[in-house]
Hints:
Layout: E1 7-8, H1 15-24, H2 28-34, E2 45-52, E3 55-62, E4 67-68, E5 73-74, E6 78-79, H3 85-96
Antiparallel strand pairs: 1-6, 2-3, 4-5
Amino acid sequence: MIDANIIKQGNLSVSYLIAVFLALTEYPNRIKNIFNNKKINPLGIYSVNIYVDGEPKEILLDDYFPCFSDRNEHLFVKTKCNSCWSMFLEKAWAKTL
Length: 97
């Protein structure tokens, strides 16, 4: 589900990244086009295409996300449902730093 109302800021508090995600929700097809995998990968390996310093780059990701063990809650960007596109994009962004 691609909807601005489901995204919640995590502990990293990168409000500019959340603002980008919220702006992207206005164009769901653009978000869908970022992802190379269109279905769940049983190996947990995913690929996204993003621009880094103006150049297109493919970023490989796994499906592991850090959580608080006592609260069963993600540390970083969260959603109010089972949608995980924002978590993958945040992870891709972190890998470019």
